[in-house]
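User: Okay, second chain of the day. Same drill as before: sequence in, structure tokens out.
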Amino acid sequence: MPETAPVIEARNLTRSFGGFVAVNNVDIKISAGTIHALIGPNGAGKSTLFNLLTKFLSPSSGQIFFKNRDITRMAPADIARLGLVRSFQISSVFPHLSAHENVRVSLQARERETFSFWKSDRCLKRFNDEASALLDSVGLADKARSKASELSYGRKRALELATTLALQPEVLLLDEPMAGMGTEDIGRTAALIRRVGEGRTVLMVEHNLGVVADLSDRITVLRRGEVIAEGSYVEVSSNSEVRKAYMGGAHA
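Assistant: Same drill. Structure tokens below.
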């Protein structure tokens, strides 16, 4: 796939914790309209880099840009309003609300009606059709009335993705979307990410290399806080430094 202009770019990004350098002088570009994966052995710094790019950590030095705008000092809520929306590794839906109500809360938040769930149901009906459409888009139309706590783990993650999509992200930021899933849920979720990723940019940290190979247009491989390879799955999997990093059975 030909390289396009970066929607996210980091320059000389570094993060230290005391005397430990978790991310060391990293340059990375995330091209618009691609699915870009961050992988690496345990302790490689991929989660720290992801937290920096999504603004849940502040860098010790370096800069982060979104469409050429410096967002280095911006808060996560502010970048979410720009269109960078993060889905968490641990499901963060409201367990005692129905799937439909969960999505509706996100739609209300998008329009800055944070407390409108206290309003009468009649006032909230304008969100119903869009909430239903979002549930349908992630394969949960038949679970609209089910409480989130009643859903399987994989279906909860699908619901979380629907609540994320309700915020109309331009860039979808996924933190280990397959974590804790069985084979059937992994296949369903991978297909879902491919579908909702159409027309969007997706940045994800993912342990499952089969999923990475299947979904990713571009992959950045980290080791000890530094980028050691970048390219397609074929390119990075044949890289001698990557092979060395994964020797001994370490996982991404």
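The beta strands are 6-17, 20-31, 35-39, 61-66, 69-70, 84-87, 171-175, 201-205, 218-223, 226-231.

User: Thanks, on to the next one.
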